[in-house]
Structure formats: structure tokens, C-alpha cells
Amino acid sequence: MNLNPRAQQLLKTLIDIYISDGQPVASKTLAQTSGLDVSSATIRNVMCQLDKQGLIHAPYTSAGRIPTEKGYRFFIDSLMEVQPLTADFLGAVNSELNADQSAGRLVNNASSLLSDFTQMAGIVTLPKRSQLTLRQIEFLPLPGNRILAILVINEKEVENRVIQTDREYSQSELQTVSNIINSQYAGKDVFSIRTSLVETLHKASNNLDQQMKLAADIAGKALQENNNSSDYVMQGKTKLLNFADLEETGKLQQMFQLFNNTRDMLNILDRCINADGVKVYVGNESGIDGLGNCSLITAPYHANGEVLGVLGVVGPTRMNYKNVIPVVEITAKFLGQALKTEY
Q: Are 32 and 148 contained in the same domain?
């Protein structure tokens, strides 16, 4: 779309003002703030042209104008000037996304950072591991024929899993199990360990060492794929309640229903995982019901040349894109850097 410099300046000013206060922008306001030496009549004419081109519209009769999705898209692609990051944000990223933490902690910290510094919802998909290496496993007895399995995976990742058994086991029995597994399988891929344990049980006979049979049974259950874990972490959803843009009847409810539908959220996030840097969906561009009044800004995060996941921010279309985009971009870079030693 070709707009002359005057029209571009007026559109940019209008969007900046609307993002700031959320109120329709009148021609008089633009005349006072745009920095253009033109009459109010000229500004009104330009506003009419922008309206006809679908970049702005009047939400009701005799009102000022607000941006459309098309207007936001033109602004993001052609007019926006990304703002430098604050010292507070850079300090927080350095502190919260360092390599001395587990992958789970890093993902949670990244989601919190995105939410805290944008005051919107921060979302991070869990890193996809190409390999899971068992470093150590320990077991603790729990009431009700249950056992707590504590797994140390790769270098620093710790997972706690509760498994159900057919009887109670003593701490001495469980210590024997962990000693057998750690001595025979530490440093090996979890998938190959599971396969080996299954084969051991299938070959079970009266001649099989009973301690090994017990170890294979308990450890096999502990190392089963954990299908109950979420595929992404999202923090700050309630902060979206502070935006009047989303308060219309049904909009917030529809949006929160979407957040609870893992499949729909992953569909759109999967589209972003192979993007070349930051990707912005404005309103209905996402094609997902429930995000029609929202924008989604995402960026993939990498470690050792491999894409591990994607993170981003969900908020109203009237978000401060020039501040949010660099926050998303830098968070993705720091998260990938922190995960290099583990992936």
C-alpha cells in the first residue's frame, strides 16, 4: 500500500495515541500532535482517505478514528520504530535466564518475564528434547501403595513422578532398586532403558534374579512417558482482565476457553516455531476463534542450531508493539542461550 509521507505520519500518530489511551482520536488532536504544518481541513481529508483504504474507522457516529487490523498491520510492517530495551528488563533477563537452572525453571521464568514486562499473558512451549539421558534415579515410599520416583535427566533437569504399585515397599527395597538401575543404566538414553526393562520383564522366569525383576518393574513404571504434563506454560492470563478492549460480553470467556484448549493453542504456536525471528498475528490473522480481539507476538528459541520451542505474548490488539516485540525477541535469545548446555 502506497501512502504519502503526510498520510503515513498521521496514521502513525493516530495509532501511537490510540495505543496510549484507548480513545478514538479526533482530527483536532492529530493537528496538535502530529507535527505537521497543515490545516484541520487537510487532516480531515487525509483521515477520510485512510478510512476509505480500510486503515482506520469510526467506532460510532461522530467519533474520532481508531486503527483497524489492516491499519495495525501497515503500522507494524512499515511505520513502527522498535524501542530500546530498558536496563531493568535486561538485568532481569540476565538474572532469571542463566544456565545454572533446570529447563523447567527456565521456561517458567521466561513466561513470568514476558508477562511481568508487558503486563499481558506470557506463553512458552516446553523444549522438545532430542535425547533424554538418565543421570540418577531415587525412590521414596509413600502411603497408599505409592512410590515417589526422583529422576535426574540430562545435566540438571529433575522430575518427580508418583507411581502406583500393587503393594507397599520398604525404603531398603527401594534403595536396592535405585542401586541396580543407577549402576546399570546411568548415562544411557531413557528410551533405550525403557526398552531394555520391558525386555527383561518379558524374559522373566523362575531363574531371573528377583531383585532385578523388582527393579525392572518399578523403574519401568517410573520411566514411562509422562503424558500428563502440559505442552506449554502460560502466566499472566488474569492481567488481560485489566484491558477494557477485552471486556465486552463473551470475549474474555471465549479467550480463556481457548487458553484451556491445548490443541488449539499448540496449532497456532506450531505455525510460529519455524518462523525466521519474530512473528506478529493481529486479531483475526491467527485464524483462531477467541483471538479475534487479540494480538499474538512470538519468536522461536534455539540451542546449538536446533529449534527447541516458541515463546510469545498474548494481549489486546491495542498493545504497545514497539516495546513488546523486542522483549519477545530478546527473551527467546536468552532462553536458547541458557539451554545450550542441556540440549
A: no
